[in-house]
Amino acid sequence: MITDQALAPAIRVQGIEKSFDELHVLRGVDFDVAAGSIFALLGSNGAGKTTLIRILSTLLKADAGSATVHGVDVAAKPGDVRESISLTGQFAAVDEVLTGRENLVLIARLRHLKNPGAIADDLLARFSLTEAGGRRAATYSGGMRRRLDIAMSLIGSPSIIFLDEPTTGLDPQARIEVWQTVKGLAQGGTTVLLTTQDLDEAEHLADRIAILHQGTIIQNGTLAELKRLLPAAKVEYVEKQPSLEEVFLALVGETDSTSAASAEGESR
Amino acid sequence: MTTHVLGDTGVLTGRSLTHIVRSPDTIITTTITPIALMLLFVYVLGGAIDTGSDESYVDYMLPGILLITIASGVAYTAYRLFLDLQGGIFDRFQSMPIARSSVLWAHVLTSMVANLVSVAIVIGVALIMGFRTGASVAVWLAVAGILVLFTLALTWLAVIAGLSAKTVDGASAFSYPLIFLPFISSAFVPTDSMPAPVAWFAENQPVTSIVNTIRALFAGQPVGSDIWIALAWLVGILVVAYGFAIAIYRRKLN
Fold this sequence. Notes:
The structure holds two protein chains of two kinds. By secondary structure, chain A is an alpha/beta fold.
């Protein structure tokens, strides 16, 4: 299937087009994502990021062009593609009636894994949700819910993870937790394709950044490459003021994330 | 593509049954309206209704009440399916290597279980109110078979509503006409007491033949041709609704 795993991109998108009635959302999108890297798709609301993620995760068919995941075409062999991917959608797709642990067990069962209970307990511990694991997901805070959502996506160790705006609506601490998780995934060899409209997020996380604008990729490069597109930096002397984020994080302190998270959950 | 259809359906059915166990109000609200109607008709209106037979009124109207129970119960099926679509968990399931049909079948099987529990509760209340039948086990099984078929047909209608609704209210609104249909049938009063055009409608809509069949089975009378008309309606509705539901589901997946 693939002759040279090391050289072949994990994801290859070529000339993808998609319209909804008269609305041309994607007008020929091309990019490659190297295996084990974090690739950020940057774009404003309505740029077509979610449409592209839905095509790559086999939920939507493109009108034209092709997309392959590990060399397998997403339109021709969606069943094979689903074996190697995992989708974390824009809205945390957790079952609110079930407990956190039951959500994880459900996904482990659907992936036909042995010892779903042990897998669930392991992930609860990894995502600081052990204490909250027995509570219904409806009682979780936004950050806990997103952690659970990402934990569900990791079950079965998919080699490619799609994250559609993973930190939208999260508070700064929860956002940093998600960032750490994403970095950890890439260090473990997982390929991460994430969409964001947060420039800061792309800058912090991504090995490569592609800018999706009006249905095409208008720039694609590393952060350094993108920065070179503008005139060289001028040297100015600016008083170093702490950002509000730094102030906020210093004030609320480096509390243990588990107790902070469960306290946050209980207050709801 | 996958050989796990049964296993996946089982796991997903377990999930939605957990929803029902954790919010038993969906069963309670399903049974409250039929029970209230039964109390109203038996203790308030029933005395003035001449059914033209000597059976007790609760015996006469129970079949119609059971159909109303199922018609209001399937609204929750559409509701649960709609919430899965809205919440993104449907997308999660569809992007996983599981049998795609299992997502729908789990909702259908859950609907069957929930509605049969509701029906059992309503029959229990009817027994307290004096409903009696000399029906044998075989006859009970025949009644159960008709009710299962009715639930299945309406559940696939609910799947259409759940898949195509734009709002939560829209998802369950389809059931209102279904709940109303038994009132314009032989369920509560004999059709020959109605004005001619209404009587014509009542006699030729599916509920009347189904009600007449169940009533005759409970009373130990011959079912006549009604059972074949009822089965034709039920199988017809089931096949058409299933076809439409699957077509909408396929289109949604592309």
